[in-house]
Amino acid sequence: MGKLKKIKRKKNRKFRRIFRIFTRFFIFFTIIFLILFAIRHSSLFKVKDINISGIEKVKREEVLRKAKLGPADKFYNISKKDRINSIKSIPYVKDVKLTFNLGGKVNINIVERKPYYQIQKKDYNLIDSDFRIIDTTKDKNSNLMDIYGLDIENLKVGDYILRDKDSQEKVMLLEKLRDSKFNLEGNIKSVSLLDSISTFVTVDGIKVEFGSYNNIDYKLNMLKLILEDIKNTGKNVSLIEMEKSENPIVVEKDTKEEDIFDNNTSKDTSVVINNDVKQKVINNKN
């Protein structure tokens, strides 16, 4: 009997200890819940003023609607992250910074997307440097780069182009064209992106048959040097062929094609790059 009583007392002590631990945890989490509940419903977190900066294309009303914010709303009724993601769903919005102070003032700073490309479907689809369709317009913008050869029939404003795996080499080419080291940004008027080859047209009307998506850096560097030479020498060029032969071919208007490294060709009928540029291209190739 004595042993049974001892065992029973041990079980009772163990049960009471577990019960005390459980009770403490319950009280602790209840207090936390009540504090959070009080905070969420306190007038301290009531929205009194909303300042939105950085918007030109985006309407203030659209930002407030997406953020679900208005006077007398409780700021923490919806998580800050959810509000930011909702605002970012606006096609023109690239980034958002959202802050709130105890005085009830909400500051929303927005970085808008800028159109960089345009693709004509029925209207012109404006596309930013992240390849997101941000707007449509009936009028062509002469300051934007035209992209041809892409099927965007099933895409709408807010969607992204070139998202499939097979388009990554095209994405790389477009990104490289914006790279300052090639000095081509602003010099290319349009780009045709076909499955295996691409062509450009410069702002001066020179057609560039770029060829395949291989050796992009090398070919863009050569193109940069060729365009610089054309500008410096005043040559009247209509066509540059990057892959037709071992070396690029430059064709002047009303002349025949000649290899730019063929020094035996008469200067009256061919395009000859000066020795400094020629050596730069050779060095890059090596």
TrEMBL record:
Its main location: membrane. It holds the Pfam family POTRA_1. This is POTRA domain, FtsQ-type. InterPro entries: FtsQ_DivIB (IPR050487), POTRA (IPR034746), POTRA_FtsQ_type (IPR013685). Keywords: Cell cycle, Cell division, Cell membrane, Membrane, Transmembrane, Transmembrane helix. It is found in: Membrane. Coiled coil: none annotated. Residues 45-113 form the POTRA domain. One of its GO terms (cellular component) is plasma membrane.
